[in-house]
Design goal:
Blueprint: H1 4-14, H2 24-37, H3 42-72, E1 84-87, E2 97-100, E3 103-105, H4 110-129, E4 144-148, E5 151-156, E6 164-168
Length: about 180
C-alpha cells in the first residue's frame, strides 16, 4: 500500500499550494521524487520545489531571450540587465519566487514558468527598448501569451473574432 497520496497532500500544504488542479507535470515529478527518495520532509520538499522552479526559469529565460534577440536584434541579457530575480524569503513563503519584471512564478511547472518568463521579457523589451515584441507578421499587432492544450503559445487578436495562434513560445516546439 502506497502512502503517496497522503505524502503529496502534506507536501502541497507545505508549499502553500492552493491551485485547484495540480499540473500533470508536477504530479508526475512528485511521484518520481517519492519513488526515489521516499517520504522526504516538508523542508526538503520545499528545497526541491524551489530548486526545480529556479532551474526551469533559468532555462526558459535563455530560450525566450534568445528568441527575442533573434526577432528584434536588441539585447535582452547582459551585465546591466538585472530584471530577473530568484528570491527565497522565508518571511514571504516556504518556496522561492522568480520575478521577471512584473511577472512572477513559484511553481515548478514548465509551461507556467515559460509563460511568466515570456511575459516578463516582453515587458522588458517594451520598457527598455520601446519595441513591441513579438509581433504578428500578418496583422502587425503585439502578441499575447496563451495556452493551446497546455502548450504556451503567442496569440494575436487580429483576423477572426477569436484571433489566432501565431507560434509556440518555445521555438523548438510545434504549436
Ligand atoms: Zn495576427
Amino acid at each position: 500500500m502506497s502512502n503517496l497520496p497522503d505524502w503529496r497532500d502534506r507536501m502541497l500544504r507545505a508549499v502553500w499550494w492552493h491551485g485547484e488542479q495540480l499540473p500533470e507535470e508536477v504530479r508526475t515529478w512528485m511521484a518520481e521524487l517519492y519513488g526515489e527518495r521516499g517520504e522526504i520532509s516538508e523542508s526538503e520538499f520545499c528545497d526541491s520545489w524551489t530548486a526545480r522552479t529556479f532551474s526551469m526559469a533559468r532555462s526558459a529565460f535563455e530560450t525566450v531571450t534568445r528568441s527575442a534577440e533573434q526577432d528584434t536584434g536588441k539585447a535582452t541579457t547582459g551585465d546591466d540587465y538585472d530584471y530577473i530575480s530568484y528570491t527565497r524569503d522565508p518571511d514571504q513563503g516556504p518556496v522561492g519566487v522568480v520575478r521577471i519584471k512584473s511577472a512572477e512564478v513559484s511553481t515548478p511547472d514548465a509551461a507556467e514558468v515559460l509563460c511568466a518568463v515570456a511575459e516578463g521579457v516582453q515587458e522588458f523589451v517594451m520598457s527598455h527598448h520601446r519595441v513591441t515584441w513579438p509581433v504578428c507578421g500578418e496583422h502587425g499587432r503585439g502578441l499575447h501569451v496563451d495556452y493551446v492544450h497546455e502548450t504556451p503559445v503567442w496569440t494575436c487578436t487580429g483576423g477572426s473574432t477569436d484571433g489566432h495562434v501565431v507560434r509556440a513560445i518555445d521555438p523548438a516546439v510545434q504549436a
